[in-house]
Amino acid sequence: MSSDVLLSLSQKALQLLQEDADKIEKLIEVQMENLTTRKCPLYEEVLDTQIYGLSREIDFAIRAELVQETAGKQILVKLERNLAALYEAMSQNKE
Amino acid sequence: MSSDVLLSLSQKALQLLQEDADKIEKLIEVQMENLTTRKCPLYEEVLDTQIYGLSREIDFAIRAELVQETAGKQILVKLERNLAALYEAMSQNKE
Q1: CA trace torsion A31, A33, A34, A36 (10° rounding)
Q2: How confident is the model at residue B95 (pLDDT cuts 50, 70, 90)?
Q3: How many Cβ atoms are within 10 Å of B13's Cβ, its own excluded?
Q4: Domain containing B14: what range?
Q5: pLDDT digits (tens, 9 = 90+) for A40-90
Q6: Count of other CB atoms within 10 angstroms of residue A72
Q7: What is the ipTM of this complex?
Q8: What is the largest CA-CA distance in chain A?
Q9: Which of A44, A85, B53, B76 shows a CA-CA span of 20 to 30 A to B28?
Q10: C-alpha A76: how far from its chain's center?
Q11: How many angstroms separate the CA atoms of B80 and B61, rounded?
Q12: Angle formed by the axes of helices A43-63 and A2-33, nearest 10°
């Protein structure tokens, strides 16, 4: 019984973190699509802030032993990869 | 048994959040003590960032149903009150 509770709490925690990551993912996609049409200088700052917030959530979930370190870090790694691709595309667009 | 697991997870979560709040509290105290001797213009930004990070952790813990909303918000309210006192003291010190 106790492991069932733990499992469901862990699943819920991972799901919440993934939802937050998906929101940031969407922000990145929107900016990718609008690369040539319009630019918002605050976008970078908003993305950085959101990713920092998510990294704190993930760090907390790992420390609270709700989420395994690898699973938590994986969410961030994927986001950061996409963010790097956005910045790359933005800088090519500038040239 | 299952409620024991939940209770211990909740207690651990609250303890982690309180530890993070205490670290910010210490930053505020240090700045209070150094009010007349030296000023660091980045202090305000560091405090804001730290409090934002903590607010995201607390929000996550509430959504994951690890921590009650009132208990979580209480930690932030107390910190923000101390931060307001610091800014008040800083502005009086400027006059």
Answers
A1: 120
A2: low
A3: 26
A4: 2-94
A5: 667 888 899 999 999 999 999 999 999 999 999 999 999 999 999 888 887
A6: 23
A7: 0.83
A8: 60
A9: A44
A10: 5
A11: 19
A12: 170
Q: Which of A1, A20, A52 sits opposite B2 (nearest CB)?
A: A1
Nearest to A90 by CA among A25, A41, A57: A41
Best mutation target, B17, B23, B50, B60, to test chain A (most A CBs within 10 A): B60
pLDDT tens track for B14-46: 999 999 999 999 999 888 887 765 566 678 888
**Neighboring chain B residues of A62 at a CB cutoff of 8 Å:** none
Number of domains chain B contains = 1
For residue B48, which residues of chain A lie inside 8 Å, CB to CB? none
User: What angle (nearest 5°) sits at the alpha carbon of residue A70, between those of residues A65 and A75?
Assistant: 100
Out of B5, B6, B61, whose CB is closest to A60? B61
CA distance A46 to B75: 25
Are the beta carbons of A51 and A79 closer than 8 angstroms? yes
CATH number of the CATH domain containing A65: 1.10.287.750
Q: Which residue of B has its CA nearest to A66?
A: B9
CB B76 within 8 A of CB B52: no
Tokens 């963010």 belong to: A83
Q: Are A57 and B52 an interchain contact pair (Cβ–Cβ within 8 Å)?
A: no
Q: How far is B5 from chain A (nearest CA, A)?
A: 6
Q: Kindly give, in sequence order, each residue whose CB lies less than 8 Å from that of residue A55, ignoring residues fewer than 6 positions away.
A: A76
